[in-house]
Fold these 4 entries.
Entry 1:
Amino acid sequence: MISKKLVVVLVVLYLIGGLVHLGRMYFHREEPRRCIIAMEMNYTKNYLVPHVLGKPYFKKPPLHNIVIATFFKIFGVNEWSARIVSFISMVFVSVAIFCAAKSIIGVDAAFFSAFSFAISLIAYFNYGVLAETDMFFSMLVFMSIVSIFKNRLFLGSVLTAFALLTKGFPALHFFYLTLFSYALLKKRLRDTIFSKEVVFGALFIFALFFGWLALVSDGNIHRFNLALGTLLNASGSRVLSVEKLPALAKHIIKFPISFYLRFLPASLVFLLLLRKDFLGELKAVYNSSEDIKELLLFAVSAFVPNFLIYWIVPDGRVRYVLVLFAVLSFIVGVLYYILEYYSPYEFNKPFRRLFALTATLSLFAMFFDFEFVMGVDYIIAIFVFFASALSYLYLPKIKPEALRLFAGVVILGVALKLLYSATYGAYLYTFYTNYRADGRKVAKIILSKKPKYVMTDGGNLRLFVYVEKYLGMQLHPLSSKRHDIAIVRNKKVLKNIFYKLELPDHVYYVGRL
């Protein structure tokens, strides 16, 4: 059994890898939109209707933005407080995996199952450390479908309702496809569909969602239709693209490969299924343990129908099925459970070679940081070097083989994450356009004019997220009825120009209308 000391070491290393430089990089990708909405919620005290630069935004419901807005109030408006929401969500998913699996496959296998998701490329390197909706949404969806496995269907419906208020209608197919598939495999479809928990749960989902729409519309049927139609279009546009048939064949090949790669390093465990003897052990466990059989049936019920939706259409993206990586972790846990008593491989040599490689890469990272970044990231590279060296020396002392695999996978994942942060992350931060400084400068110029109302014609949200942050007020769309300060791309609309800002996408002018 895994020792408490080793668990503490692995958890501490994991937290170090995840939290180092969490708030360093400027807001990028979809982060500015999420954070502008959160800031404007706090500025206007309107938490029902998301706004971007003063315009209603209905492509996603408001729940995730409300959570970020809450963290902004507690920890201040900054990158760390926006991204920590996703990191906490990732940890919650991992804890939920462990809690759901430990009584079935044991503590060690449950820990490995949880870490297999927590350390994956798509979670640990991407959506678990970004202020985007995907990880928070996946947490709610995963907990809702685990509620099906635990036969707490009304709770699952409540969590589905919250997921629906986070990212829209995909929450429904994840929950109900899993529910009906699992009930079908269990031969309880009729009883499940007409059970009180499912019926009242569906009514709760309907009431909460359409109650929010009613509050948003404020009695205006056109606003109600706009909000609902925008949500339907945003959700449907992801999957209803079958007309793009030329791209379909390429997508069908690429999608599962991309999925597998983004589940690394734990997805390497699936290579065990290429061995007939290991498959035989899996079949024996499946037939002998009713609990493991139930867990595998549930994982298949949740994974297959939801995966197929995004696999068979060209616009399906791997991040849309982020929650399915957590589902697949249950199967990884079962494979580890078998490895605990039947290991066809010796993992010492492969992992020692990998740690030798990470130690070598850390030396290159030190050189890279000294030569190109010229920051303090070389300290991270030094830490990785010594961690890799110690792992190289002490890994042979960890027994049995399954536990050696466990420690090796987690330490390797953390080492790669830290090297990624010390090299590519440091490079991006150094050479990326410093929108934080640009936004602060624009806000300072505007505040010197003591404005009560600031407008814009839109543009690069990576700039405007910092303008709003340092202004401490909401930006509004241009209006011919007002003659206040504005940030625009068309200088002809300004009577007086105070400042000109040249960025890669546009030239922005600050002045008075």
Entry 2:
Amino acid sequence: MAATQTPERKNELKVQLINHSATRKGLEVKVPAWEVSEVFGQVIAKIAKQVKLPGFRPGKAPRSVLMSKFQREIVSEVAQSLVERHFWSAAAAAGTQPISNPALEKADLREGVDGSFKALFDVAPEVDLPAYQGLAVAKKKRRIDDEAVTEHLEGIRERAAKLVPVDEASAKGHYATLDIKVKPQGMKPQSYQDQVIQLDDARPFDKEVVGMKLDERRTFDLDVPAEDPNKNIAGKKVHYEVTLKDLRKREVPELNDELAKDLDKADLKELMTWVREDLEQAAERDAMARMQTTMLDALLDAAPFEVPASMVSLQLDDYSQEFAQLISRQGINPNRVNWNAYRQTRRYDAERAVRSGYLLQAIGNAEDIQVSDEEIDAEIRTFMDENKVQQTFEAFKAELERRGNTTEIKGRLRTDKIFERMAASAKVTEELLDKKAFEELAELERKREAGEAVSRFDAGGLEGGELSEQEGGEPHVHGPDCDHDHDHEHAHAEAAETEAKPKKAAKKTAKKDEDEPKTEAPAKEDAPEKPKKASKKKGE
């Protein structure tokens, strides 16, 4: 008797693409009944082995009991399994290329009947390039005159100052090393060793110490004002016992040949020449960076386009992480920050950063700007020479590649080339600014960017990501080809022009007040560029 043949199960998915906006899309996928039932069976079997129910041996609880007790968990896992199984192929079939992992919006799944799910995701924006060639732009540059050179030389003198011992009595401005015993009225005494203070006789404590000599011990009482912020000692008398252990004064060297030789220069004339050249180079770098920002601002104004919400959210993650690290170093607990409010204040910055990356990417693609392996190697060798790296070139480069830094180098070099290409065709008017005018310009820029953390802009790429998994590492602009590591491998990734950096991101819970769902992680496309900010000039 011939064996019974199992009917062929065709996975005939029905896919509908839904356009929510220029960068936000949805996919509605209908799944055949047999596959829905199959996945339900797999999930229920797995859960049966994991749970213990009274009256049943492990793995022997009936399906009806499991569904009754764990229906929500089972349906959720079935939905997630079907999304993981079909989303990327469904997106390809619909002719769209997601740059983020799907966020499940809804699912209609029951055993024995056809099911469906709807997932939201982001796509890269289409950038209509404005006229970026022949831009009229001002190049504002600090004039390096004798005053600027003199100021910088004074700064060199100040930084070369040394603390030298003194045998005289302590005086205002001296640095005193003290052992201090403190006994507030009605409290236990406390002792502090080797406390270093710069004496200022305007302060009551310092006024008592002024005039002391080495190894001298002095006792005195001070009355603490009633309004003192330290409530424990406010309005009380405090008894002090102080011993002067060391006394020094700050000695600034003369501006002469001896100082020049200490700085590896032949004489004062060579030092002054070197300072002027260094300031000229710094002024040129500052002017170029400022001009690049001006060009980018003009292009952004001329090319409005929507950016993916997931990219903006990830940029905000980086800003938040950077700010948290900053305040932690200052001794402030990051948990005291209203992060929702902080993210809202930085949203404009984040949107601009992401738009900048996509705009520069589009220009680089239009100009077919590439970076060769030889150029990357040359940049690495320059870094090694400047920083006196002792490793071999091969070992050092391998370490950079392991950490993904070569992708960042490539992106930065490409960004430089893009700006160089635009500057070459621009109509540049150079403005030399004296000290006052330059300081006014710098102050205006400071006010505009008050509170803004420095973003790294390079062509390492923009990429979205799973918001619960995509925080960590150095700040960067996010988009379709950045340095995050992701769980999925999409077919389009193999066609990416720039490899993704293999960096593992730390997990983070998504903010509920953000505009996008909590599951966003990108496929890989061309790497959007990142603009530079005007840097501070040396000596300013």
Entry 3:
Amino acid sequence: MLHLLRQFSILSTAHLGAIWSTPAFLLCLTFTTPLAFGADTSVTGKWSGKLQAYANEIDVDAAGLAAAVIPLNGPGLEQYINADIPMNPGSIMKVLTTYAALEILGPDYHWETRFFTDGQLVGNTLDGNLYVEFSGDPKLTIERLWTVIGELRGMGVSAITGDLVLDGHYFRLPERSPIFHDNGDNPHAPFLVKPSAYLTNLNVTHFEVRADERGTRAWSKPAFDRVVIDNRVTAMSEARCPARSQFEWTPQFHDNGHITVKIEGKLARGCRTSAYLSLLAPEDYSGALIQSLWQNMGGTLAGTYRTGVTPPDARLMMAAYSPDLVTIIRDINKWSSNVMARQLLLNIGAENRQPGELDDRLAGIRTILEWLESKNINTAGMVIDNGAGLSRHGRLSARQTAQILQQAWNSPFAADLMSSLPLIAMDGTMARRLRNTALTGEGRIKTGYLQGVRSIAGYSRDKSETNWVVVGMVNHDPAWNGQAVLDRMLYSLYFTPPLGTALSQAPDSGSSVR
């Protein structure tokens, strides 16, 4: 299921990706190497000054641009623009969360979802309840659940006389947590899914409609009895397949807990369209999913699903083990998964909870800030909020972000973090940026996108193969042209990095990053 969401994750409000055809973006790619940032040693000829001048040309406010570039293993001059001003980083916040997780939890960290019973096996019947003890696994997919539930059938069990009891006590969360108020019109979008110990399959249902000679057919994966599709899509003769935006997906919630999803639009024969929606509370989604998988395998459940706590004397039946943390952070950073990053912050908190702490989000933030301070990184003004960057309140400065990336470069787990970042013009959220340029594959860059925010953070090489830390943030409304500034920043760093004399170093807004 996760791989099906990758194409959607690029289109979320938290990370919609680029507006590829904007004039500013095209301008970014049309300048030639000689016209990129030259070696002029005048104030206006400084590398950072050139970037600021370009931002001004395309109406990006000077105060809304922050940047830091630092050479790591070759010649070069550090460059800074508004480097100490806390900015909204958007999704580059995930670089901090995932790097912290590698060092605090360890790259071999796994999640374990365990299945217990308080009953006895009698023939092909489990006489009692089946308990599912969740651990906040960010990637407990339908495929993994199918495998572990299949083990129960493989044991010869085909009937459960009790209930399916979901135990989500692993996380400590207050009843009211900070809410992200999205500016879009779809409160059921996957990027808005909230973290939960009960999370399975990213809490998303995939709806599809296909047109053929019979008309149109609609279905969902997974299929839930309580979710009904009202397919009003009409079939047309063969023609160009319409964009997803040409269809209306309207969920209607009924008092009995059932949901009707009305789909409207026109679809040419041979075409299909789809949408991803999060419609159920995590405990309802997971309960319905596990129950349906069990029944689809021929199993019966006399009771129903409900939440509860696993008795201390219950015995273990089986367990589902997650991929390691290295695999998890690859999905988080390549595809900018908000809910997985938010789960990860809660896991850091749960694993490092102190006596009296009742909120794993706050415990996770405290743990990360203490870890940063142990590395002599100034955390003043830093606001982690939810660890995903899906926030109007998150704050990082360009210097803080650059320091974090410098520390990561020297970490034993540097390769694990870097391999999780999107490759320029090749994959993840950078797949369509700077294509058909010499930069293809020459940098690993996490991107950020929110209303009024564009950002990049990661590592890039220049044409002499010197590696650089690169951080850029644009906080400007509207910020659609911010991507052009950031792409030009990468382009110029590759062709004309700031090398020259000390006279060509940008003015610093504080002490240098060392």
Entry 4:
Amino acid sequence: MKTIRTFLLVLCVGALVGVMACAPAAQPTAAPPTSAPQPTAAPPTTAPQPTAVPPTSAPQPTTVPPTSAPANTEAPTTAPTVAPTTAPPAGATNTPRPTPTPPPPQVTAAPGAVQIQFWHALTGASQVAELQKLADQFNAANPQYYVQPILQGNYAETLQKMNAAITANSLPDMILGNPGDLGTYDAAGVMVPLDDYIKDPTDGLGDLAAQIDPALYFDTFDNRTIGISNGRSIQVMYYNVDMLKAAGFDKPPATFDEFDKVCEAVSKPPDTYCYALVPGASTFANLDWNRGGAYASADETKAVFDEAAGVATLEWLKKLADKQWSYIPAAAFGDQTDFGNGKVAFTVGSTAGLPFYQTAVQGSTKPFAWSIAPLPRDANGKNYVDLFGPSIGLVQSTPEKQKGAWLFLKFLLSKEVEEEWAQVTTYFPANRSAATAVGAMDPSSVTNKAFAGVIDKYKLAVTFLPDGKREPTAAAWQSVRNIVANMMTAVFTGKSGADFTATDPAAAAKEGVERVNKALSEFGK
């Protein structure tokens, strides 16, 4: 986990385009283009291994969203248990969501063109359309190649399909996935190191290399660059400005104590709650960092969140549940739904979801002012933000296919393409010059209306970037994310299950670290 500063200080000047509009405003229930990394599998050997730790469901969550239908589960506190919200807006869950239909290519392959299959996991409808549009542009300008973007489903589904393809030796030529997923494929021996391509005197990045911060946008395994990202996002706290003002608070809480005071004032269960919690490794890591914890060892070989900061984080989550200030939405993307309906003061999610939150709020019966802030910290801590997002890698094939795939990746990193991609996806561009150009845009001149509607909040997010950190990116760490989510759920609900036993915060932190470290040591064996 490395604090990202050098590039981000420059990006604060201009990278104001990062939160790409993942889908047009007419799609309020679509999921954001990216979320926190999903669990990954161990490297396939003789058979695909979809997960190193079986992704069985976590203990039954508290489901007390502010609606009125009967509940499907029993809440662990005395709060009334009511049914989840029904509209599934964007959120970081593993629940399946509708897969958009890719538009047909507008360019036909030239005779003898080198065919390049590009598998990806970008499920936002606007993302899918934009990626095909960019492929058409590249194919028209480079008729010797023909890039075919092929949606494989969400990140978890793409991971499973890629593992099966590795076992069957029937591989694509390019792959987009979480950095840890690319590490999994590299461990299986199918990825192409990009270093020689990057430095090639003719077709390398050249001057473009100086525009990209490798610490943030390159993914390196065993001192080899395996993936490059053309955009990242950060994890932030979404909050209802009007609800806080009505309760006497004129700014978002910066500390956990301030957050608790807001919760005590705004929580009126079952109608209104303070925080819609979606358990996940990225949220826990961020909270742990903000209490002064390390989450993982410096060499990323083991988990260390059983120390004081991790235990305090779990104690805080338990307090939120015990005081009925928080709940775990039972419906897919229920946190965003309830936020849009003015039923919850806080949620946590990726900046890639900014356009979806805008749509949810504007589409409600009583729209309200809302904004974003970093997650809370200890009194003497720091408001870190978690940086994440997908990367693109080349899969071993033929020299011709690999060269064409590299040229397409280089094309995606160009200034003009990055400017356009940023407005569609609201990611922070890898290309500094693109970031500067997007950051200088006036909302009235932005043609992408979804992005124009959130550009002010996107610019605000840029100011958080100097305190950005990255979670461990190794494939083994991707495989243990379910363990951390199960730990959070067990403590919050007070219920043991097959996937996690301890419900006391200290005991749960100890069990969580033991489970994670065991899985890390066994990964790939």
